[in-house]
Amino acid sequence: MKPKLIGWALAAVVTMLVVANQQEVGFARDEIVYMQAGARYADWWLALAKGDARDITKTWGGKHATDNNREHPPFMKELYGLSHELFYEKLGVLDEPTAFRLPAAIMHGVLALLVFLLTLELWGLAEAVIAVALLAFLPRALFHAGLATFDAPIMTLWFATVYAYWRALDGRRWPWQVGAAFGLALATKHTAFLLPFALGAHYLFVGIRIRGIRFLAYRWRVIASLAVLGPLTLFALWPWLWLDPVDHVVDWLKFHLDHVHYNYEYLGENWNHPRFPWHVALVTTLFTVPVVTLAGALFGALAWVLPSRGHTERTTHGVKFVTSRPSTTMHIREPRSPGLLLVLSAAASMGPFFLGTTPIFGTEKHWMPALPTLCIAAGVGVAWAGRLLVHAAGGQFRAALLASFAGTVVLAAAVETVVSQPYALTWYNALAGGAPGGADLGMNRQFWGVAARGVLPVLAHEAPPPKNGTKAVYTHDAQPAWGFYQKLGLVPRNLFDSGREQVDPSQLAIVIHEKHFNRHDYMIWKAYGTVRPLFVLRAHGVPIVSVYRRPSRPPQ
Q1: How far is CA 116 from CA 9, 133, 155, 275, 417, in A?
Q2: Does 320 have pLDDT greater than 80?
Q3: Which segments of 462-511 does DSSP mark as H helices, in order?
Q4: Geometric angle at alpha carbon 195, from 140 and 36, rounded to 5°
Q5: What are phi and psi of 264, to 5 degrees?
Q6: Predicted TM-score of the model (pTM)
Q7: pLDDT per residue as tens digits for the range 253-298
Q8: For residue range 362-387, what is the model confidence (pLDDT) as tens digits?
Q9: Of 429, 333, 402, nearest in space to 129 by CA
Q10: Cβ contacts of residue 223 below 8 Å, gap of 6+?
Q11: Burial of 296 from C-beta contacts in 10 A (0-12 / 13-18 / 19+)
Q12: What phi and psi values does residue 537 have, to the nearest 5 degrees?
């Protein structure tokens, strides 16, 4: 099989893995908003294609900052809505949640393909396969990739822009790909505005090294593509900008620059205003990426920065073996400096969170564009360490031994990923002590209300028979998704939501355990006259959702 076909096959496998994994994952409260907005956007575009030019403001905007979800760019929402319209409404080949979430899964497969292609070109087939496998088995990334949100897709489009930029530095006459990729990234999430910091620093370094004081003449068409085609792509995909592009862009960016500081737990403290600890991104990444992947990335980083020593190379059954550290000549002397580009990409993604003032509420999802760099470094490092170990062992069957070593590393990451689902937000790696260790350290164990799906069977069991009336449920952080759960038949329709912060009318109640949600337990204890839950959902022993039932008689 040709190497590039292997990449396509891996991309398909990664996409199917995401689709399969999301089947048991609950719905995030923001996800419901994006699904609803996406359905409206898709209807607008389909009507426009039929010659029916509907009012833009009614679908895309409004006078308030969050009307029609205008505070977020539309690209992924448009894909979610079109996928729902095609695969659920028209063809009926997918259930409704999968139809909405499919574009995010495909995006993750695209990321796998791009990681494979770049690693293959720079380091080789073994490194490329390992890098993709370790990317696929990132517990938190796999979780996010299954949601109809923006966090995993922006990771893909961020890396797509980096990859297209690097390829465009080969001197092609019309490097339109980089501008188009950047425009799609802008149309997905505002964090794409951080990309020029990485690309600009790299362009200056490479341009000065090659052209000196005439560096602006170096591949100037690439910069032109980013500066012109990027914004034009954003404009074309977002009808809300058609009416008043300058003011609406300003409103969009101002919304996020002044973003509210939601609560999150970190090392035992609840944080909801600056200054935040400067090390949040580093520590959270160290605790949420499998240890074998972190170790592989460390070896890969050493392979990138350490000078090569004299070594011999020989090939057996298509596998290269070395007697010392592998040469880093490829990316040190390579004029486009891909190693530096990858490092700058990760730095730009994580950088704002070192300032201590950037809003943090979804922890690792904010700096996920750093993960491709980590996985590529891990692929290089695992292959390098494996070759050194195999050479030291001597004997025959070296190709099999190398495959066994790499397979063991990937299997370790895969096991962590499998056991973490569907509550990957509660999972932490061995450095943290697993999910219990993460809880003991005071790390965030849930957000967005996703885990509520795990207690729906308990609530459904408590529902009265259809002819015996209704029961009110205090649905807590699952309130935005409650109607969708009812529509899907996961809870009966005679279990209705009691209302936001309305515990008194309810007969059943749930609390999703986050540090700042403790007050909801107290509200329920006071209203129900009991502190004893009916059921507690646990992930590896860590409580994540409690279910309460109002006693039939007040306690004595």
Answers
A1: 11, 10, 15, 39, 20
A2: no
A3: 479-487
A4: 55
A5: -155, 150
A6: 0.93
A7: 999 988 888 899 999 999 999 999 999 999 999 999 999 999 999 9
A8: 889 999 999 999 999 999 999 999 98
A9: 402
A10: 203
A11: buried
A12: -80, 130
CA distance 336 to 169: 7
**Rounded alpha-carbon distances, angstroms, from residue 487 to 61, 97, 103, 295, 547:** 27, 11, 22, 45, 21
CB atoms under 10 Å from CB of 317, counted, come to 9
Number of H helices, E strands in the chain: 24, 9
- Is 307 within 8 Å of 301 (Cβ atoms)? no
3-state SS of the chain: helix, strand, coil percent to 5? 65, 5, 30
Burial class, 489, CB count within 10 angstroms (exposed 0-12 / middle 13-18 / buried 19+): exposed
Nearest to 16 by CA among 142, 127, 148, 119: 142
DSSP-derived pairing of the beta strands 471-474 and 508-512: parallel
Q: Take residue 442 and report the two structure tokens written for it.
A: 């005071």
Query: Checking DSSP bridges between strand 495-497 and strand 471-474, what pairing results, if any?
Result: parallel
List Cα–Cα distances, 305 to 203, 230, 292, 300, 421, in angstroms. Answer: 20, 33, 20, 9, 36
Residue type (1 letter), 537: L
